[in-house]
Automatic annotation (TrEMBL):
Source species taxonomy: Eukaryota, Metazoa, Chordata, Craniata, Vertebrata
Name this polypeptide is given: Checkpoint protein
Protein species of origin: Pantherophis guttatus (Corn snake)
Gene Ontology biological process terms, A to Z: double-strand break repair via homologous recombination; meiotic DNA integrity checkpoint signaling; mitotic DNA replication checkpoint signaling; mitotic intra-S DNA damage checkpoint signaling; nucleotide-excision repair; response to radiation; telomere maintenance
Gene name for this UniProt entry: HUS1
Alphabetical keyword list: Cytoplasm, DNA damage, Nucleus
InterPro entries xrefs: DNA_clamp_sf, HUS1, HUS1/Mec3
Amino acid sequence: MVDWRKARGSFDAEAVAVMRFRAKITDVGCLNHFSRVISTIAKLAKTCILRLTLDKLYFILSDKVANGGVSMWCELNQMNFFDEFQMEGVSAENNEIYLELAPENLSRAFKTAQNAKTVKIKLTNKQCPCLTVAMELPSLSTSSRIVTHDIPVGVIPRKLWNDFREPSVPNFDVSIYLPVLKTMKCVVERMKNLSSSVVIEANLNGEMELKIETDLVCITTHFRDLGNPPWVSWDESQNSTHERDPMNMAEARIDIKRLLQFLVGQQVNPTKALCNIVSKRIVHFILLHEDVSLQYFIPALA
């Protein structure tokens, strides 16, 4: 994360005094879905940025890929989760809010809310800025129980917002739909005991391979007939040079623990899952749901 805390002073308290955020969930299906998304984020990042706009929420991990770090960009349409959603940013011109938080804290709060009648989230200032999550839970008596979680957050100054914009994706060599994620996870779990890295290869003929190579063993798992998304950006980038042989493999060697972390943490239940490969540079995963999209970037190893 950027080192913005040292010079912050009283910025958090002043910013929270200006900003407003409150939201409410009453539908149990929306509540459980949001809880699964938060649980996924918690497994992918110890800390992240929560960006709030009038229409969307974003969970952002912005480690520099060029320096070997992973990046994440998760986007949610707020109207598909919340019955009420009100916010006021730092100004009319910059009507957004950027908060740093530990997603595990938010995930723990929502795990206790599975049977809640309502869940309210509010930006508060209790000795420090907090996201206060208040849950109305059923009880044996006629009155409900209210359980409150105060989750500490840091407020990101406006001048640093550009550090948390959506990561750009270089023109990729291959884009391919992923196999069933549970199957892929089982394969990678077995491979991690043999190697610290894995090579992902794919081509434009719907073929993908996961491969580990050591001094003692070489193991390759083949996937066939996966299909390739018809990306316009790929067509444009390739037509300007030459047509790529669909059988040629693009490949990148990545940290196997980071790949497994991505596969184990996934609880979004995507309708589509795909992978873009920039040879020897980066592997870009995309999980798509009707109201959630999650991108995860793993840099290639040298």
